[in-house]
Structure prediction request, 230 residues.
Amino acid sequence: MCCFVAPMAEAIVTTVTTIVLEHTDKSAKQAGELQVATKKQTVCKNLKVLSKMLWGGSVLLAFEHVWHGELQAFYPFLTAASSPEAMSQMWHEVATVGTSMAGLVTVTWAALMAVRSKFHKAVPAEVEAHK
Amino acid sequence: MTLLVTVFAAIICTALWYRDVENKMRLSPLCYMYWGASLMWFVDAIFEYAELRAEFFTPAAGDMLNDAFLGFSAVAFGLVIWLAMLLIKDPKGRFHKVA
Prediction:
């Protein structure tokens, strides 16, 4: 029904976290804490990959829901919001299917990052700054 | 069928991304988009299988056609998003050259 809501919520959280980390990374660079800046840069890069996977997946899933007539352009946007029974069914689906979707994407991302970190070593902020 | 179409799109995009060493086509967002959607539809398929069991593997022809149509439309929608991002970033400077 609206299972994409859970991954979309996670996507919002990761995007906000990335923005905050990038902001603090700039302050760390200005303060000359290059090791802290390098760590934050790596975390930001990895989080961006997760956001892209979550946003991309959620957008395509939202498209599927529009296709099936479960999303509409006007208030209350979700056709399930028309009755309390449909609403409870929708929340149940978000809690089961949606959470599993977000969980699987996160686990896959973690595995991907673990493999990637074995092949690539973090570039120090000093080197990155000279690029 | 939607899952299958998206998985094939993800595999093709990943292969193209691997070929594009200079990253001039900015294919990685498209790969992440398709892989993200594939994983989500995979979870959806697991829940559907848990509900339908053997029936899950014998869908009606009409349903399959509708799902395939949806899959191709989703892939096309993803391509439109990627194209918009590519043209905005303009990594090869095409618009710059025209101007």
In short: Chain A touches chain B at residues 3-4, 7, 49, 52-61, 63-64, 67, 96-97, 100-101, 104-105, 108 (CB under 8 Å).
